[in-house]
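lol ok so funny story. i was supposed to be doing the assay writeup but got distracted and ended up predicting the structure for this chain instead. priorities right. anyway since i did it might as well share w the group, maybe its usefull for someone
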Amino acid sequence: MAEGLEPMWENLSVIQSRWPDNRLDLYLLKETLWNVLMALDYVHTERKIIHTNIKADNILVSIADSAILQQFEEDEHTYPSPRKFVGGRTIYQSRSWREPREYGMPMLTDFGAAVFGEEKHNHDAQPGAYREKKLSHKGTFGGGNWASETTPCGFDQAWQEKSRVI
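and the output, tada:
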């Protein structure tokens, strides 16, 4: 039995950089926060896993517009990407995507730094660049809901300005 992964578009950091003033569209921001919080609820409650590296780079948006994939395939066939051969492997230069007509579902990815939540851990909860000052101490964590407090860290200005109003 083979399992295939859904093709994903870009991460939230790249998408955010395209918007005026590096701010996400409010609908996309709300949809993303909802999906990330639902994903965290699932991995914490059902799987007892703590992600520990939540940031905009680790939130990918799925491809809802299948025409993007068709155009990508046609472009690759007509104008093949530059490539080089190193150590018996072929390395292709990345090709840019066109802007989609609609965004797909945002998904939390990169569980490489995840830990099991039922165990006690004595290390920093997130990489330094994304860690809130209040979480920068080393302490015991596990199983709690601390990650929901740090979710907005990766959303930079858009979230910080909105959170001041709340």
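The mean pLDDT is 75. The longest helix spans residues 26-45.
back to the writeup now i swear
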